[in-house]
Hints:
Elements: H1 10-17, H2 21-34, H3 55-66, H4 70-83, H5 90-105, H6 109-125, H7 130-144, H8 150-170, H9 182-206, H10 210-223, H11 228-240, H12 244-256, H13 265-283, H14 289-298, H15 311-328, H16 330-345, H17 347-354, E1 358-359, E2 369-377, E3 380-384, E4 393-396, H18 403-408, E5 414-417, E6 419-425, E7 430-434
Parallel strand pairs: 4-7
Antiparallel strand pairs: 1-6, 2-3, 2-5, 3-4, 6-7
Helix pairs in contact: 1-9, 2-3, 2-5, 3-4, 4-5, 5-6, 6-7, 7-8, 7-9, 8-9, 9-10, 10-11, 11-12, 12-13, 12-14, 15-16, 16-17
Amino acid sequence: MRAGKWMIATGTFALLVNVGSAPMARAQAAGQAATGQAAGQAAAGQPGAKNYKDRAEYDLYSKISQTTDPKAKLELLQTWQDKYPQSDFAADRNTLFMVTLSQLAANDPAARQKLIDKSSEILRTDPTNFRANYFITLWGPAVGGANPPADLQSKVETAAHAVTTGAAEAFDASKKPANLSEADFQKAKGQTEALAHNALAWVATAKKDNATTESEYKASLQGNPEQANVSAQYGKMLVGEKKYPEGLFEYARAAQYDGPGALPPATRQQLMDYFNKAYKDFHGSDEGKDQMLAQAKTQALPPAGLQVTSAADLANKQADALNARISSDPAFKTWYAVKQNVQDKGDAFFNEDVKGFELPGEAVPSKTFSGTVITVDPSKVTLGIEDPTKPDASLEFSQPLPASAMDKIKPGEKLEFSGIADSYVKDPYMLTFKDPTIPGVQTAAPARKGKAGRKR
């Protein structure tokens, strides 16, 4: 995104450029009063009134007022200034210069610096001039780029603050054009304030003041949510600061938003591709992604308290929970030790240390494993020991379970058991027991007995 271009509040820009008619009207009235009088004489009865130096100055002005091409008008304004540097209408002429340059600035980079210079000249005698501050705020970042000189940063910062403080007066209800709705007038105000905050973010970025940059981007999107490019810039900054949930939300906003101020489809697709990958890399899965995308489509800023747990944090929490369970549950400690050794060492460990031994063994106070029943049929029950939703233990029976046993074994309920492991599958992990003992449940086949389990 080119600095400055994305900061233009189009509606406000047109609104403020249109005010060029005001100095024209004032000069026209003075010119009409001056015609018919001797050159240089004040209008009768109007001490201190503005007058043209001579008829030639008035004729030059008249030609300017009838010229619609900005380039031609700029040349005439320069001629007026060269011939009449001390004109009574110097201030109005400066305003016409400023407005004409603003009409050229969008397509003529050379006009931008001239516009900033002319606006700065106006501010030397009228520091609260809203239009002059606005144009410096608008075009200063475009001129300064990524490495702006300190004096330009200072000009933009001062002008942007003046715009934010002057917006209430500039957009007072009494100043609303008759042909503009109140809603559009207020929208223009929001665009203007957002523009100023974008400029202040630009200055803060140049100063490497991330806290201010973040604050200004947020204020900008509050003032004008229809800035997908600002959302993308804001998201990039937040991710760079490792504020991943908020940064991912802003990328989602820039990729999803399709209203006024949306990015081109190709750019949106690039941002969506980045978001999809970054979200999964950070969170470890796509869980919650669709909800974030739906929310970002309708609002420009993340909700308060947005939480997206990182894959690293999630892994740490799972590890903490696993360690706590191992410490508090001796039977699970045995189960987990068997699993880790079988997966690491394979058949050698299973055949030497697991097969033929009673598990979990006499050393475990409860003498049983505990799992959640996942599936049940008369010859086989699967349970989740480590995770209640994932089967990792299979209880197989040589004779079908009687009805009385089936009544006591229900999916979703806890089940205690012990027995001799008969076989295993490494991935996904499954340990199979043949004819195990289930306390309180009478099976048709007698439980198998094995050697006392070794201490693990």
